[in-house]
Design goal:
Shape: elongated
Largest sheet: 4 strands, antiparallel
Strand order of the largest sheet: 1-2-4-3
Helix content: 25-40%
Structural class: alpha+beta
Distance between the termini: 82 Å
Length: about 270
Amino acid sequence: MDSNLRYLSADDRASSRRRSSLQARRPLVTGTEVGGLLGQDASGASCVITTDSEGRRLARQNSHVQSIELRTYIFLDSLQPQLAAYMGTVSQGFLPIPGDACLWLEVSPGMAVHRVTDIALKASTVRLGQMVVERAFGSIALYHRDQSNVLHSGDVVLEAIGSSVDHRSPCQVTWTEIIRAINPDHAVLINRQNRRGSMIQAGMSMFILETEPAGYVLIAANEAEKASNITVVDVKAVGAFGRLTLAGREGDVEEAAAAAMRAVAQING
């Protein structure tokens, strides 16, 4: 028997042996020395211990997240009825409704969109409406009735990837045109294509817009619908290029085109 225990009472000897047993079973932790029992401080409060190897893993993870390239960051304050209905036709998740706030994000590489989605959904109560993983890019659409929730998720994503709205890719307009009094044959071909919006009728005027990156056509479509009584025919916001097709009376189309071009011009400041 240990000489130090010889003169202790039976209860004191049992308590001392329990302390010795706990210390013997305590694993070795690299890094900062932790006093008291494992996972507790002197006050009994729980604490989290990070080993050196865990710290290196977290550092590598943060490095990967901050290597994500922000291509498109578009905030739509209030989805217009036609655009909301159109986005609902291609939505794989929660369906948007008119008046919802929307955030469209496009990042590179494509699979990085899963990390961005995880960060955004855990930051607030936004709803995931769409997630597209392409060959080189990935895109998500987030919706919520409350604009502040959408903006908060966007801010958290930007902070996590070490970026800002100013660092998004600039909007390049590769083609824009108004075609007046469209021919019946032309109208039929447009309506038979892979179109998810409304049909275009012969004699209508048509505004077309192509942008790079693709997601920027969404803000053009939303602002055009706010400004004028037009028909949304097609809005393709994924792929290498975005394509927007609007139709209506000539004066309405001209007004919508002007609003759309103002919206994309503001992206580049």
